[in-house]
What does this fold into?
Amino acid sequence: MTANLPYFDRLFEGLRQQNPEVTRVFGRHVHWGYWANPNTADGSDEDFALAAERLAQRVCDAAGATDGLRLLDCGCGFGGTIASLNDRFSNMELVGLNIDGRQLDRAREQVQPCNGNTIEFVQGDACQLPFADNSFDVVLAVECIFHFPSRDRFFQEARRVLKPGGKLTLCDFVPLPITLAIMKGLPKVFQTGVAETYGSVDCTYTVADYRNLGRTTGFTPILEEDITVNTLPTYPVVRRVFRSTGNPESDRATASIEWVSRLGLMRYWIFSYTALS
Ligand SMILES: C[S@@+](CC[C@H](N)C(=O)[O-])C[C@H]1O[C@@H](n2cnc3c(N)ncnc32)[C@H](O)[C@@H]1O
It folds into this structure.
């Protein structure tokens, strides 16, 4: 099973070289940060790591994660969200799934169960889940659905493995409808730059698309939250890390995402749904 994820290649290289910025910023979570008040962000690695932990906790709280539940984290990265749940709750059955075996090796090294929790890391594709029907209380997809081959297929698979009443919760980069027209008119170089850093990414799903997808795959929406402004202090930190790893082109690609986000054209949303019976 292979995945085209150039930014993870860069992160692994940084970790191998024991680059302290990479370790502090992306050693646990590989997603954006959340600042309740973005003016308080100080741009440091430590502040960013706390903000990334807050984002994970917000998504887990939106899913109603709590003691005793069986939870699947799809696209689990280095296991940061599983680690956060493991620290906060007890007697959970935590399963992390990732297409990239290298990330799972690191997750297994980094995250040891405590508080009566069990943890399993499984290699697989979020669109073909290797799990039984009705076997989870919660399915998460933290900042990864844009890589999946099909959102529709992922929602169908999440519905299949969730018990009725279970929760599907995710966060994603969501364009305004007008942004789609603008994106079509942008020079190819813009999209190529993003793909060269972030790999295969589809950020064309609007809020209306998410509403429709939930309806057609057996879910009721319970939360839709636009947290774009709370994530904006992420960009200077991520761009600095790319410069520190000798990847100025990744800094530029991230700058282009920063500007569509600062202009409000690309939003960052959390969505949560209940699985219908
Ligand atoms: C931005 S990272 C987020 C990682 C993690 N959720 C976190 O928040 O730290 C995107 C993740 O999606 C994973 N991924 C990409 N395509 C996938 C697929 N088809 N099935 C499962 N995981 C996938 C990548 O390997 C990567 O771990």
Q: What stands out?
A: The chain has twelve helices and seven strands. The CA atoms of residues 225 and 270 lie 5 Å apart. The chain has one domain: 6-275. The mean pLDDT is 96.
